[in-house]
Structure formats: C-alpha cells, structure tokens
Amino acid sequence: MPVSLYEVIWIFLIYAFLGWALEVAFAAGKLREFVNRGFLNGPVCPIYGCGVLLLVIVLTPLRQSYILLFLGAFILASAIEFITGFLLEELFHNKWWDYSDRKFNICGYVCPLFSVLWGLGCIVVLKVIHPAIYRLIRFVPELPGVIVLIILSIVFMADLVITVANILKFNQRLALLDEIAGKIKIISNEIGENIYEGVTVAVEKGGELRENVDIKAAEFKDILLEKKAEKAKLQQEYNRLLKENVSFGMKRLMKAFPRMKSNLYQESLLKWRKYWGEKRKQED
Questions:
Q1: Which of 42, 104, 185, 195 is deepest in the core (most CB within 10 A)?
Q2: Who contacts 232 (Cβ-Cβ below 8 Å, separation ≥6)?
Q3: CA end-to-end distance (rounded Å), the chain
Q4: In a 3-state reduction of DSSP, which class is residue 95?
Q5: Measuring CA to CA, how many Å separate 116 from each of 21, 25, 122, 211, 226?
Q6: Are 42 and 155 in contact (CB under 8 A)?
Q7: Model-level pTM?
Q8: 80, 72 in Cβ contact below 8 A?
Q9: Contact predicate 118/48, CB 8 Å
C-alpha cells in the first residue's frame, strides 16, 4: 500500500500507462490498426490510474480473500466508471462511451461484463502485478525518481490542458453548426410559407388565377430572392465550418471514442463524423 505522495503519483502514472497499453492492444486486436484510446494525447488513460490506485488503497487489506477482493473490485470499478462517465458528460456535454445496448447497463456508463473483468483483473493486479511494481518504485533512488516524476507530471498537466481546450473549441464549432442549421431551416420554412401563401391566394380567386399568380409572384419576388441569398450565404458558412480542419487531438478523440454522443449538438456531430469519415476513406 502506498505510504507517500511520491508513491501515490508513481502508481497513478504507471497504471495509467499500463491501462492505455491494454486499451491499445484491445483495439489493435479488434480493429487491426493502432488507435490511441486514451482521453489524453499522451500514452495514458487516467481512469485506469485513478481506478487501480483506489483499488490498491482500499482493497489491499482484503487481498487474502479472493471473494471479497473480487466483490470489492466489482463495486469500486463500477462506481469509478459511473462517476467518471457522469462527470465527463456534465463537464463537456458529451457521452464518451455508451453501454446502453448491453443488458443490465447502468445509465449507459457501466456494463456488468466489464465490471466483472475489472474484478478479475484486480485479483491479478493485487496478487501478481502490483507487488512487483511497488518493489520497483521503492528500488528507484528517490531523487532521480522525483525529477522524472516532476517532468512526467508537467507533461501530463500540459496534455490535460490542451485536450480540454480542444474539446471546448470543438463544442463551440458544433454549437455554431447547430445554430446555422437552425437558421437555414427557418429560412427554408419562410420561403415555403411565402410560396404557399401566394399560390393559395391565387387559387382562391378562381378565374383570376393567372393574373393573381403574376401579382403574387411580383410581390414575393424580392422577398424570395433575399431569403434565398441569405440561405445560400448561411449554407456556405455551414459548409466552411464543417470542412474546416480541426486539431489533431480532436480527430484522435473522435477515433478513440467512436460511440461518443453530444447531448446538445448530436445532429451536427453526426454530420461532422459523416463528412470526415468519407474524406478519410477517400484519402486511404
């Protein structure tokens, strides 16, 4: 069990890296390609670092009982995954993973199957892996260990800041896309209503159909031309935003979390995914 902040940070970073390696290996076996599955750009998955660190601190006293160790890991891992998913969704308005299609899921954040795997994995970690890692941490001289730890921590924090900034910027783009799409829809409806109104009035005049159609056409011509020009301008801006390149980090996140959903701008997110997905296929 860690007894100092030095050991706690090392344990967090080591398991964040090992968790990232596990995710990459899983994706490679499933997709037959390299996918950086971490939330951050660097080779770390913070949820694994936090999860294993908490499991080590809380469950080490239970390591002599396989049953208690499994149950404790099952409950704690489920709680960690639920809280992490919930907080990420509340902070960024995006659901980064979704188990809604799996049986007995909890709000889409937790899947019992993976919680069971966490439970089994925790037994392996506490019984086999962690003792060796803890000995390695204690074996490294503290001074060089602190220096390396400071460097890694600075890189980690910089990566976190950059990632958060990329997500916020991308959400702003989705918001603009959503706003422009709404304006285009309103203008389309206004154009349709104007045409409908003109034709309806003309039809109601019976025998004066041709004359009234001409009159209405003259009345609405300027309005329709103005609305169409406004719509074309908005569509041009929409296409520009859709096609405008985004940061490498944001593209990586979209690839790492293919089932990510936006609570506020899902339609715009789907259109963005479709466009860049088709472009990527063309490039490949």
A1: 42
A2: none
A3: 49
A4: strand
A5: 20, 19, 10, 77, 61
A6: yes
A7: 0.77
A8: no
A9: no
Beta carbons of 37 and 27 less than 8 angstroms apart: yes
Report the alpha-carbon distance of residue 65 to residue 80 in Å, rounded. 22
- Does residue 269 contact residue 174 with C-beta atoms inside 8 Å? yes
CA angle 210, 214, 219 (to 5 degrees): 145
Q: Which residues pair with 261 in a beta bridge?
A: 95
Task: Note down pLDDT in tens along the chain; length 284 residues.
Answer: 556 889 999 999 999 999 999 888 887 777 777 778 778 888 999 989 988 898 888 888 888 888 999 999 899 889 988 998 888 888 888 888 888 888 888 888 898 888 898 889 888 988 899 999 999 999 989 899 999 999 999 999 999 999 888 888 888 888 888 899 888 888 877 776 666 565 555 555 554 545 555 555 566 667 777 778 888 888 888 888 888 877 787 778 878 787 788 888 888 888 888 887 777 776 65
How many other CB atoms sit within 10 Å of the CB of residue 102?
13
